[in-house]
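Running log. JK asked me to keep both predictions on one page so they can be read side by side. First protein, sequence followed by its tokens:
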Amino acid sequence: MFTGIDEVDWASLRHAYGSAEDVPGLLRGLASADPAERETALDGMYGAVHHQGDVYDSTLACVPFLFRLAGRAEVADRGGLVELLVSIGGHGEEDEGGADGLRAAAGAAVRAGADTFTRLAGDADPGVRRAAAGALVRFLDEPDRVLALVRERITVERDDRVLIALTEALGRFARMHPAHAADAVALLAAQSAPPYGPGLRLAALGQLAASAPDRLPADLAPTVVRLLRERSERRPRRPDRPSHPHTDTLVGRLRRLRPSDEEGARLLRTLHGALDDRVDDRIALLCGQLTGPDPVDRCNAVWMAPGLFHTWRADYARPVALIGEQLGEEHDRLRDAAVAVLEDLFSLAAPAADSLAALVASRPDLWTRRWEHGPPSLGRPLKALARTGDARAVPVLAEVLAGPVVPDDAAAVVVQLGPAAAPLAPALRHHLEEAPLDSPEAGTRIHWLLSALGALGDTEALPGVLRILRRPADGSHPSADTLVPLALRTLAAFGPAARESLPVVRRLLSSGYAVAAAEAWWAVARDADAVLPVLLGELEREGRTAARVLELLGPEARPAVPALRRLAGSERLWDRTAAARALSRITGDVGSVAPLLRAAWAENPWTRQPIAGCLAALADAAAPLRDLAETELATRRRHTARPDGRGSHDVPADEALLRVCRVVAEA
């Protein structure tokens, strides 16, 4: 197995942490009779030699030895070695360049040894056969031979888990080789119907959804739910898993984090991913999963939900309410999963508010989360309830804020609660006044306190805000660059009621915080003559930030038009977009900057919310760009969803955009 290993100059090769001279020890560890040593060695391979999917010269040097190890029956856990080879070679399929072509070279090296996978597909170890199934399709360059091998293995295989892997390999084959896909799709269609078992049929339906959606049954969701329940009835309540050492390795930790029914989670994840924009089918499927008798199936369903909610716009009241119902379960993993999903939905979690409120009321121990190091944080159920805007969170938050140790993020949810949070203002003011300004650790807490008090418009907090602004304006105190501008924006939120702050703000007009000070001065004093020279002076240096404040001035900022027109020609997208917005508000003419705003809207989705806010303020004058809002409202994909099709966690940003677009469209 290790012939020639000492002839490799490992010390001259590199991995993620420097010299690869320790790699021979890792390779030998993979063949150890000790399970803990094998797992530690595999952890080292992923942690250094193939760190986060990267390929190094030492990774290439390992490939021949990994193939030899995978082919020796006396080596245990060889399925993991095949998976490692697939991962090393798979990145070469995605990146033909890589660092000095190493990724492409890795793909070529694994492809050159692909005949080994044909032998391993019939190995006595089902774990090896399962890993080899996908490797055959990915790396063997003869489609007819590959299809014949997979068909043969399906005929003789008796292990359900290996059969599912072969079915998944068929789906990949159909997508990789469209000219040869018909026979593979026919096999998948056959496997999706009786007499095959429910697990295999679910796998086949997931692959059909990705490869040949026209072959799916018309009653897809009911069919999948029925198969899922049949599979659950057959699944042992205590899965017979191979024993593994309890090692403190990345591999070991990931294994312990896997769902209790990992195969079921993967089958449903594949199907949901393949259905993509068939949102109605996916909602029906989720609801069927969430009303099933098996808590493990329901837990898998909960984890499927974010990919749908975060990517597509739809009415999710029913599945969200069903996720809320899981909060009453004694199944800890299911309850924790439901809370984690609801926490990221903000106002979309409102249908689950009753369930969240019941959990919060019954479990005071969940109001905060304590950590080994650092201050506590707000408990997830309470945070999720507050983020829905439900007033039932207010008295509980009042108790938390009255406690001896207040979570840094307790004030962060006040913005979502809106005016209902007004009773919390005295406690928030107290914590702002008591916060130690010389402590870097207090910066996060002060940040959220300022945001909360500004959102509430609590002018009684003015002394606490001025305490921050009266510190040296030279950036010498901790977090000054963050807290001083935020304190000034808090004054701006207070408006004319903060007139006593003007002497402090005047001093800051000539500091490094001039733009934020100008915004506060305008909001409090409405004196354009005082702030225009400051903003014009900062326009070249601060670009979009100064332009945003000029936008607030509207027609009062007309002397800034020539400078803004120059900024509108900037190479920087955000600078020219901010300039275009300001010009439209100052002149009342959106037509002259419409091409700029339209191009920015298309180029970067994150520009849409500020542009839509500008259009809403223009009312009827926004007519030349009203179609942008109308098109956005008719689009099903969230603007925060990434181009690769995966959702982001910024659902509230998308919902905020939709609210503003409705104002624009109805103007």
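And the second, directly underneath as requested:
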Amino acid sequence: MHAPIEDYALIGDLQTAALVGRDGSVDWLCLPHFDSAACFAALLGDRENGHWLLAPADPDARPERSYRGGSLVLDTVWHTDSGSVKVTDFMPQRDRAPDVVRIVEGLEGDVAMQAVLRLRFDYGLVVPWVRHVGDCRVAVAGPDSVWLRTEPEVKTYGQGFSTRSEFTVAAGERVASVLTWHPSHEPRPAVIDPYEALRSTLEDWEAWSARCRYDGPHRAAVLRSLITLKALTFAPTGGIVAAPTTSLPEELGGVRNWDYRFCWLRDATLTLNSLVTAGYTEEAAAWRDWLLRAAAGNPADLQIMYGLGGERRLPETELPWLGGYAGSTPVRIGNAAVDQRQLDVYGGVLDSFHIARVAGLPSKPHAWNIQRALLDFLECHWREPDEGLWEVRGPRRHFVHSKIMAWVAADRAVKAVESRPELEGDVGRWRAMRDEVHREVCEKGYDAERNTFTQSYGSDLLDAATLLIPRLGFLPGDDPRVVGTVDAVRRELAHGGLIRRYSTDATTVDGLPGDEGTFLVCSFWLAEALHLTGRPEEARELFDRLLELPNDLGLLAEEYDPVAGRQLGNFPQAFSHIGLIGTAFTMFGCGGAD
């Protein structure tokens, strides 16, 4: 049986991340980067596919966990009949090699501990050769090498292709374990001091959290979401992954299992807005620069997602040796949606650069030329159908959101020239495009009988993405068509008080069998739209409900099942946390005023 998704905690070093279960087992870790092969893959199989357990030997031990202050350092206090211990898990920001540090500290009495390290490289498939080297255990297979040492040294032994140990910790005693990865053909990296690493890691995170400008209601939730967004950043390039996991299901036992360890252009606008508004301009500039590099090239070749460094080829492959989370197969790595045509990304890119300009981020000399080239391409192609924001694997359609984002692209280009006359461009032509798109969407994408914008031209289905209309400025919040759309989406896409992104009853829309949970970012969009349409009390009521959904550590997955009361999809999900941050700023501003 797999633990609920919300039972996991996140630790990371801004290049990769691990998921630590409530039971003290690290069940997911890709090394050396987010998109590398996992060496612990129990999350998507069973413990034979790799994990690292560190917990009291007492099966009735009771854990209480929390992050230390504004950091990504996880403390778990275990209570047993014989005493209590604290286990501190973290990954220090690396110098060269990635490290996972686990420190056991005795608090009261004497507590017997157990540790099981089962390394399985290549997503749980490859069993390494393990041997003693001095005071360490070293595991090697192919390109991967992992070293385990303890301080003070703890006797280990092999059993069932795993490394095990048992030791007792008394009050005031500490035992630190450090796991270090490096390429097997290179020398072992320098040994770190686990306690100095803890001090510097806490210092780094606390300094970063202190920069948060938000001081309104629910500050702890907003800050934790910002910390999570930072944790999903690949520091060397500035790219931000959608999630650190792959194939956590949108429906238990279903096939909607995707790899989210890449950087989506669709997230760019909302991510930049969140970072800039919260005061994190350095991170916003790094993300903007990543976006600029990724978007460079032939505008016709613009993709919806890229690798951590802007890589373009992300072939989708299935891993048949993994049984899937809760039997949800196939387990996939890579993402075939990379080859889809999603015209909304052009608007997203231009809106991102607009946000960067308004925020005063230092401009890049070639950025405007790239934006003009993207808009020139979109001007010729916005009338074509596409797969849309939600990456449907059904037929292409004229998705309303994609058309609205074409309007956004033209609108932001017009505003750029109006605010900075030194920028070159045919602003008259762009205004004409903006007007034409607006007119067509209002004619073909609006159902006057039901007073709502629809998912696509000629369709009677709805789409939660239309909740973004007032935020994007396509129409004001008090426009009756916007109010009607908000009401229709809330009525027809509601499930347990939350919102689905679209109806999955008509499988012809996304070409996939099965169902999915409510989409958390869409529920945040609804709260924001309620606020923008003049219903602040309803908005706050929904926002308060949504703030009950994160786990005990403030983390959100992609989706939520309101019937089973559990999280679904990849975890933690940047889009969900971006939704929380953006809605809080819309409703309360930086200082908490309504």
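Observation for JK regarding the second prediction: The radius of gyration is 25 Å.
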